[in-house]
Amino acid sequence: xxxxxxxxxxxxxxxxxxxxxxxxxxxxxxxxxxxxxxxxxxxxxxxxxxxxxxxxxxxxxxxxxxxxxxxxxxxxxxxxxxxxxxxxxxxxxxxxxxxxxxxxxxxxxxxxxxxxxxxxxxxxxxxxxxxxxxxxxxxxxxxxxxxxxxxxxxxxxxxxxxxxxxxxxxxxxxxxxxxxxxxxxxxxxxxxxxxxxxxxxxxxxxxxxxxxxxxxxxxxxxxxxxxxxxxxxxxxxxxxxxxxxxxxxxxxxxxxxxxxxxxxxxxxxxxxxxxxxxxxxxxxxxxxxxxxxxxxxxxxxxxxxxxxxxxxxxxxxxxxxxxxxxxxxxxxxxxxxxxxxxxxxxxxxxxxxxxxxxxxxxxxxxxxxxxxxxxxxxxxxxxxxxxxxxxxxxxxxxxxxxxxxxxxxxxxxxxxxxxxxxxxxxxxxxxxxxxxxxxxxxxxxxxxxxxxxxxxxxxxxxxxxxxxxxxxxx
Length: 474
Description:
Helix content is about 80%, strand content about 0%. By secondary structure, the protein is mainly α. Among the domains are: about 5-140 and about 430-470, no CATH class; about 205-345, no CATH class. It has a two-stranded antiparallel sheet with strand order 1-2. A hairpin with a 5-residue loop joins strand 1 and strand 2. Helix 8 (about 190-205) runs antiparallel to helix 16. It starts with a helix and ends with a helix. It comes from Terrabacter aerolatus. This is Membrane protein. It holds the Pfam family DUF445. InterPro entries: DUF445.
C-alpha cells in the first residue's frame, strides 16, 4: 500500500489549512482506491450493491457517503482554523494595548490562540503525530489499536454479556408472542413453510451419495457390529408383546395368507394331491384337498377373529420366551450376535441401505416440492394452529420464553468469550494508519467542535483572567 500521501500529511500536520484539507481528501480517495490492489494478502475491495464496496481491511465503503463526510470534515476544519487565524489577527492588531477595552480584547485573543492550539493538538494526537513529531502519547489510534480492541472486548463482555441483562432483554422482547403474531399475518405461515421446504430440498440434493455411503460403511455398520444387540432386541421384543403392538402385524399376516389361499385354490389343492399316496384314487385326493382348503380358510378366520385363540396365545408365549432368552440365555445371545455379524458383513447391506436412502430422499423431495401438496398444506395448518395456541396460552408463552432465555444464557456462557474475542482479533488485523483515517472520517467533524469550543472558551477565560489581574492590587 502506498503511504506516501499519509507520511507527507504527517510531516506537514499543523493547524489545518485549505490545502491540507484537499490533500487529506485526496489521500483518503487514494487509500480507498489502492486497497483493491493490495498485494500483502489483505482483504480486497469488493463492490457491492448501491455503489458500496469493501474498503481497506474489510471496511464497508460508500463512496458517495464518504465524499459527503470529507466535505463536512473539511468545512468544520476550515471553521476551526479560521477562528484560530482570526484570534491571531486580533492579537497582532491589539498588541501593546493593555488598558481599556482593547486590553480585554487582546487578552481574549491571546487565550483563544492558546485554547485553539491546545485543542488542535489534542484532536490531532488521537489520529497522528502532530507536526509529524513522535511526541509521547500521540497517534493514539495507530499505536494503541490493540489496547482499544481489548478495551472494547472487555466493555462488551462486562456490560452486554451478563446473564441478568440477557434475560431482561429477551423477556422484554417477548419473542414467542411476536413470532406467533408474525406467523398469523396473512401469507406468513405459507411463506415460512415454503422457505423451510426449499432449504430442505436444496440440502437433500447437496448431500453426496458417496458421503452417505461412507457414513454407512465406515460409521454406522462398524458401530452396529461392535454393539451387542441381543439384550436390546430382547427387551424391545418383550415390551412389544406385552403392549400387544405385534397384534396388527399378526392380523396382517393372517389376512395375506387368507387372500393367497383364496386366489390360489388350484395351486394349494395340487400341492396336497401331489403328496398323497399313489394308491389313493384321484377323486378321493381331490375331495380331501378341497376339504383341507376349506378347513384352512376356516382356521385362519378363527385365528383372525378370536384374540384369545390358542395359536395367538402360543405365538405370544413363543415370543416372550425368545425375548427372555435374548436377555438372559448366553447361548441364544451368542446365536443372535453371530446372525447379526453375518447380516452386517454381507456386501448387499450397504447397497440396500443406499437404496432405502435414495427412495426416502426422492419421496421427501417430491412431497416438499409440491406447493399444493398435502405435506405443505398440513405444515401451514400446523404452523397456524401452533401460533393461535401460543397467543391464547400465556403460560405456554412464558415457558417457551424462559427456555429461550436459558438457551441464550447457555450460549453466551459457553461461547461469549469467543464472540467478544472477534472484536479484539478484528482490530488487531487492522492497519493502524488506515484505521485512524476511517475513524477520523466518521467522527472528525464532531471533534472539530472541540477546537471551536476551545477557541471561544479560551477567549472568555482570558478576558476573565485579565479582569482579575486588573482588580488585584499590584
